[in-house]
Amino acid sequence: MGKVFNQKEKRIVNLKFVISLLASLFIASCSEYKKEYIDGDDLIPPSPPFWEYFTVEGFDVDQDGVRDDYELAVNESFDEYNLRKALKEEFKTDEMFLKASTTEEALKLLDEYWVRSACTVAVAVYYEDKDLLDNIRNVRKKRRNNYWRKNNYSKVFRALIPKGVYSTANTNLVDSLYNCNFEVQEKIKMAEKLKNR
């Protein structure tokens, strides 16, 4: 037969239970609100919801202008700070392009996209890693990874960009590096190496 508690002992047991329950809830709630960062940005949830795939815009939980599925792919695929930042900036411009409403705005964003894309290439070339370039191509493919996104991009492009108009991005690697729109780490060292290529 189990131990029989008197009234006072029951209250103590109940009080201990309530205190431990409250402590557990407090710890759980603290861990939920703990922020983690990568490259100065909030880390997004590890897995965007599955229905994100079926949307045109996707999700942007941290509201930094980069869709969460892109951000997750970039964070998981690359260890290099400069490369992660360059790709996120490139993707951010791509998203803005999809929301353009006038030809003038679309052309400006198309040019900006090519500038940011050239920055990504300059950073990637600095690391001299063929696998890195393949990884960049694979991550870039995620921009049009469902029918709705491909269709939306084509629709915006056809509606707003005149036929035969293409951006003329600067192909000089050093200039492209200096045109990056974020603070490139070790920029001078990188520029020197790119000059000697």
Query: Over all CA atoms, what is the radius of gyration?
Result: 25 Å
Walk across the major sheet and give the strand order: 1-2
Q: How many discrete structural domains?
A: 2
- In helices, the fraction of residues equals 55-70%
User: Could you report the average pLDDT, rounded to the nearest whole number?
Assistant: 80
| Number of DSSP strand runs | 2
Summed up, the helix count is: 8
User: In percent terms, what proportion of residues is strand?
Assistant: under 5%
Order of helices and strands: HEEHHHHHHH
What structural class is derived from the secondary structure elements? Answer: mainly alpha
Shape: extended
Query: Stretches where pLDDT falls below 50 for ≥5 residues?
Result: 28-35
Largest sheet: 2 strands, antiparallel
What is the distance, rounded to the nearest whole angstrom, between the alpha carbons of the first and last residues?
Answer: 85 Å
Explain the overall architecture:
With 197 residues, the chain is mostly helical. The chain has two domains: 1-34, no CATH class; 40-195, no CATH class. The chain is built from eight helices and two strands, in the order H-E-E-H-H-H-H-H-H-H. The chain has helices at 7-33, 68-77, 81-98, 103-127, 130-141, 147-160, 173-178, 187-195; strands at 37-38, 41-42. A two-stranded antiparallel ribbon has the order 1-2. A hairpin with a 2-residue loop joins strand 1 and strand 2 (41-42). Helix 2 (68-77) packs antiparallel against helix 3 (81-98), helix 3 packs antiparallel against helix 4 and helix 4 (103-127) crosses helix 8. It is extended and about 90 Å long. It starts with 6 loop residues before the first helix and ends with a helix. Mean pLDDT is 80; it is low at 28-35.
